Amino acid sequence: MNQAPLAFITGASSGIGQALALRYHRAGWRLALVARRGHEIEQWAREQGLDAERVVVFSADVRDTEAITAAGRDCLQRLGVPDAVIANAGISVGVDTADAADLEVIRATYETNNIGLAATFQPFVAPMCQRRSGRLVGIASVAGIRGLPGHGAYCASKAAVISYCESLRGECRPHGVAVVTISPGYIDTPLTRGNRYGMPFLMSADDFADRAFRTVEAGTSYRVIPWQMGVVAKLLRALPNPLFDRLLAGRARKRRRSE
Q1: Is 154 a known active-site residue?
Q2: Parent domain of 146
Q3: Which member of 24, 110, 154, 197 is catalytic?
């Protein structure tokens, strides 16, 4: 295994995760790719013609804190301390709090999008701080900037990602480690193709990955991609509640697991 820089990426079996893996591979990085179904990533990497000498696959579910932290420790032992750790794994499902069954959906969302993100970072924080370099990258969402009807679990979880990464940034900065928060807008992935509402400024996963790569390399603390969605989000955040509620009245909601 050569000594090119190393990226540890979760949620690498589809969508944004795969696009990021391809972008980092094109830049000459080594890859530590993590997903629940590791064999699917291995098959995909072969189909894409990725250099087998630069790709190592770890099978782990980020909801299983022991499994994902073990994958991180295994990466440290086998490959060394990554230069970038990208906590990308996430789920997005509509919820209705009036339905008791959706409480489990809320639990799964928080376990994946929040506890899973922290567990992804956990093995690497101390080694990166000791080395005094590295990037910890949290993939949030513009949905974390303001709550959307029927999408409470996802919006709340991504708001928590933004605040958590901000807190972690203050903890790691004195040790030379950057924490980067990226909030995607609407990206064309399997996660968004089932949406029943308009998706302004829809961006391809490859275009997103290219901009995200440059954002991480720059060590930018927070960025919305595409930038136009950042403007939209700020405008929505500035709206008084009555106007915001009127604007979203009747908006189609995210599909629930039972639909």
Answers
A1: yes
A2: 6-248
A3: 154
